[in-house]
UniProtKB/TrEMBL annotation:
This is Protein Wnt. Belongs to the Wnt family. One of its GO terms (biological process) is neuron differentiation. SMART domains: WNT1 (SM00097). Keywords: Developmental protein, Disulfide bond, Extracellular matrix, Glycoprotein, Lipoprotein, Secreted, Wnt signaling pathway. GO terms for molecular function: cytokine activity; frizzled binding. InterPro entries: Wnt, Wnt_C, Wnt_CS. Its main location: secreted. It is found in: Secreted, Extracellular space, Extracellular matrix. Signal peptide: none annotated. PROSITE patterns: WNT1. Residues 315-336 are annotated as: Disordered. It comes from the Eukaryota.
Length: 424
């Protein structure tokens, strides 16, 4: 018999946390910078294909970064699907890649979401590690890398103009900045080679203001070009896909990586005297991975159900009854949706209510539900009609995780004691 819900006064909640080290990657037992060799990286991981093993032997440091990206994605997957019957918990297996799990070799909506998130995690992690200078095979993204000498020269020009605007002129007894010294005189514009620049260099106030609002590419942009390519080579099949599952996997991998690319942001640093912002250097950084997960969760809810015929023509055909799980499908308002940036799946998902190893379903027995909710985390939905019990429950979970190079995860262990509704 289900006991009545106790009043709030008799249901105290205690929360405390402690620092814990979660060495989920490569089974490392200590924090710090390990020596990343083919032996320490490649031979510890079961299930690598021949191609992946060759890539790992050539680039063990990049592979370690990719594995860290996979771990980031697994944590994010569990966060985003925490209110679903299948919550990604079956993907975490000690010493093996999640791509060998049963669910990722099926055509479910959940498979599509997980594949996209894992591909995004690899690209995101490798791109970030490149910019940190941790990998031998890559560095900052070269396309937007500005010459440091040019940046210093522009700053010196702006400093000179600021002095002129203030009426101070240039103190002859005061040495010029190194960029304006005689050593560099041959590389400077004619107006900057003398101690008394012509009036043409004296900018009007509105001109100086506009110069202060300008920016140049500089700093160290995350090398998403390299990260995207490694993610593609590591996870996608070579050549043309031969069946619907391979096509679905490659498509969803691409959607995941595209989310990272589309949400790169510009980060800037001010340069100038006395804390002013005479001009800025800017670089591209990868988005927070929580944003990547949230955007892919939206695509998970609106994923497109496609026909499963093995036509290797590179085109997906959405089913007309495209509303599996009650979510919007491939048609909206009578118009066909473009599928190039949408998640696709071809197999109707099981209900995931009971434990079933054949579809990687852990079941929902013992899951905490919300009895006041009308969404997927409600007790009616999550418990599959079996009912729930009200229990005083103390649980520990990883929280506030930070992923450090390389290859460990520093989390807080949050312990919470509360009255909860638990599925029977």
């Amino acid at each position: 018999m289900t006991p009545p819900t106790p009043p709030p006064s008799s249901a105290p909640t205690f929360f405390f946390s402690c620092r814990v080290l979660c060495n989920d990657i490569l089974s490392l037992k200590v924090a710090g910078d390990p020596v990343l060799t083919p032996h320490s990286v490649c031979l510890r991981l079961a299930g690598l294909s021949k191609r992946q093993m060759r890539m790992c032997v050539r680039n063990p440091d990049v592979t370690a970064s990719a594995l860290q990206g996979i771990q980031v994605a697994l944590h994010e997957c569990q966060h985003q699907l925490r209110d679903q019957r299948w919550n990604c918990s079956s993907l975490e297996g000690f010493g093996k890649l999640p791509h060998h799990s049963t669910v990722l070799n099926r055509g479910f909506r959940e498979s599509a979401f997980s594949l996209a998130l894992l591909a995004a995690g690899v690209a995101h992690s490798v791109a970030s590690a490149c910019s940190m200078g941790k990998l031998r095979g890559c560095g900052c993204e070269a396309k937007r890398r500005q010459d440091d000498d040019k940046i210093r020269l522009k700053l010196s020009q702006l400093q000179l103009q600021a002095l002129q605007k203030g009426g101070a002129g240039l103190d002859v007894a005061r040495p010029l900045p190194p960029e304006l010294s005689a050593h560099h005189a041959g590389h400077l514009p004619a107006g900057l080679r003398s101690g008394h620049p012509p009036a043409s260099l004296k900018p009007a106030s509105d001109q100086l203001s506009s110069m202060q609002d300008t920016w140049e590419w500089g700093g160290c942009s995350h090398n998403l070009r390299f990260g995207d390519r490694f993610s593609r080579d590591w996870l996608d099949s070579r050549g043309s896909p031969r069946d619907i599952h391979a096509r679905m996997r490659i498509h969803n991998n691409r959607v995941g990586r595209q989310i990272v690319t589309d949400n790169m942001t510009r980060k800037c640093k001010c340069h100038g005297t006395s804390g002013s912002c005479q001009f800025k250097t800017c670089w591209h950084v990868s988005p927070e991975f929580r944003l990547v997960g949230s955007l892919l969760k939206q695509k998970f809810l609106s994923a497109i159900f496609v026909n499963s015929q093995n036509k290797n023509n590179g085109v997906f055909n959405p089913r007309t009854e495209n509303s599996a799980g009650g979510s919007p499908g491939g048609f909206g308002g009578g118009r066909r949706r473009s599928m190039s940036r949408e998640l696709v799946f071809f197999e109707k998902s099981p209900d995931f209510c009971e434990h079933d190893a054949s579809v990687d379903s852990p079941g929902t027995q013992g899951r905490i539900c919300n009895k006041t909710s009308y969404s997927t985390d409600s007790c009616g939905s999550l418990c599959c009609g079996r009912g729930h019990n009200i229990l005083k429950h103390t649980r520990s979970e990883r929280c506030n995780c930070r992923f450090h190079w390389c290859c460990y995860v520093l989390c807080e262990e949050c312990r919470l004691t509360e009255w909860v509704n638990v599925c029977k």
